[in-house]
Amino acid sequence: MPRLTIADLAARHREQTAASSQPTIRVGMSTCGMAAGAEPVFEALASEVKSRGLDWRVARTGCAGMCSMEPLVEVAPVGRPAVMYGDVTPEFTQTLVAACADGGPLPTERRVPGIAELARIAGEPVATDGGPLQYRIVMRNCGVIDPEEIEEYLDRDGYQALAKVLSTMTPEQVIEELKVSGLRGRGGAGFPAWLKWHLTRESKGEEHLIVCNGDEGDPGAYMDRSVLEGDPHAVLEGIIIGGYVIGAKNGFFYIRAEYPLAIQRIEKAIRQARAAGLLGNNILGTDFSFNVEVRLGAGAFVCGEETALIASVEGRRGTPSPRPPYPSVKGLWGQPTMINNVESLANMANIMLRGGAWFAGIGMGKSTGTKVFAVTGKVKHAGLVEIPMGMTLRDVVEGICGGSATGSPIKAVQTGGPSGGLIPARELDTPITYEHLQKLGSYMGSGGMIVMDETDDLVELSRFYLGFCVDESCGKCAPCRIGGTQMLRLLDKIAAGKGTEEDIATIKRIARAMQKASLCGLGQGAPSPILSALRYFEPEFRGRLVSDSNSGCHP
Amino acid sequence: MSPTETEDEIATIAKRWKNKRGSLIMALHGLQDRYGYVPREAAMSLGEQMDVPLARIYEVLTFYNYFRLESPGNQVVSVCMGTACYLKGAPQLLDRASESLGIKPGETTPDGEFHLQVVRCVGCCGLAPVVTVNAKLLAKVTGESLEAHLLKPGTAEDVKA
Lengths: 555, 161
Fold this sequence. Notes:
Chain A has about 550 residues and is an alpha/beta fold. In chain A, about 40% of the residues lie in helices and about 15% in strands. Chain B has two domains: about 5-65; about 75-160, Glutaredoxin, CATH 3.40.30. Chain B has a four-stranded mixed β-sheet with strand order 2-1-3-4. In chain B, helix 1 runs antiparallel to helix 2 (about 25-35). At the A-B interface, helix 2, strand 10, strand 14, strand 18 and helix 18 of A face helix 2, helix 4 and helix 5 of B.
């Protein structure tokens, strides 16, 4: 591809109304899809189309979000609505292609709701009247385009925001737009994005750096993986805009080594962008130059914490450091560094293209825009959903994901992973905002949402989460290293039926100490799951105590 | 594989990363991708070529779960223990795998064929419970399907692809 200029992108923008003229079959080829057998399905479709000499295109696409129904295949004839099929087998592809060939009605078996039935897409109005509950900004291209083809991203307004920013906006204007949008960090804590950008830009240093945090550590969450796999250029466009705003020449993607496909796709996107003049020297013919490199994690949950992440990108053990100084002042190699989560960056292009006010019009109160959740556990339709903030937990769990899959009623929903908390079923009508979730003792987190039914044992679950944090504690600070281990011992004792009243009181005491005195978010957050379990389900813990409290005491 | 070829490969990895800042972890990934683990001799050679003390290399290797210091055998069986998999029976799957292979998590079978381990989350929660065998991902695994996969003759070939 020749190097693009601002004028090329403007011309593309005008041409985009021309609809695609080639009928297409798309196969979901993200990690979930491939695990469910998408590769043989893709091959069968391709060879079937070829052997019949059809003019249909068989293409790869990312994750449409309905992970439990993979492999997913979308058949999109010209001039007729597209139809989505789930649990597709190589055998079924013959039926599909035969129907495509004779142009008649498409098969009705294995049909599942298509993206258009599940979600409105950025630019369309949010549903207020029984329309689809989901609203996709971050996932607008996931399951729609071939993530390995930059052309397909360009055809969906790709890099238009970058062109707009570079040709018509100063960095201050971008920050102002971001401020109007109200976007808050999607990694979990919800720090205002504009303020982070502003603070990093204002800091003095030899150079400014930007890092995309793709160290999705919450076990049970995979939003960032899906976005990196399904729409890598959107994240790349976000980091380039960020680089321009803070005055960075270099940026890094820090991605978990456990996500090989995400790494491969982002590396490919970087190569394509470089060839197209969207990365490197004189981007789009302007005097802005910027490069990115990929750095891999190596299996340490603590590295999602900003200061530990910095140590890891520098090639050291990922132990956190006290803050302040914040990375925006003193980050990678001592330089001002801006660290943004994958989902935060994936929002950027849309905000810049459609305006901060548009974004702020979605959501509720100080939680603007949308949030992607990975809803898993005991729900019927496990998968990814993107919803406008302020939607209730019930609408997500029951409305979108179909409620309990097991017949046993839903007992609780967990958000925020090992640093988050349980929300009991009776609070399901709570709107999903940073503030509401915090009030319930949980937090937004990066987007893990695990649904539990009445058969799930919350004492065991608390042990699971705490055990995770104990394993992942880096050991640098005593409250986390010692507090976590002691709390886990007490919890083991309770689970074994040997606990006493005093043990519960001690757990609460240690938890408070860890929250106050730990060095980083891992230790501060580790007691959250057990505290929320005790807050809502203390009788379950008490039911495990030795009947006569005294008999539990050591002589 | 002759010792010189090995040296050449390590030299290539060292050369690729030597003058890039903060690249030690990437170089170590290079070694593990090549050998399946990080052999001590390879770590020593890498350290010399990149001017990094061996102590610093091991400081990093031992901190991160992803790096292995011993050869894992032909087939690495990883049982995902993310929350979704945990709720859907991963602990029972792990017991089952452990029983049918006759080894505990973290161990390798005496014939060097299987290595059993627990992973934190492979990000496939919608298809829980999940087990990976080398690069192949098995979805919605049951005790029976896992056992069948492990005992199937010729699996070593099809999982290497």
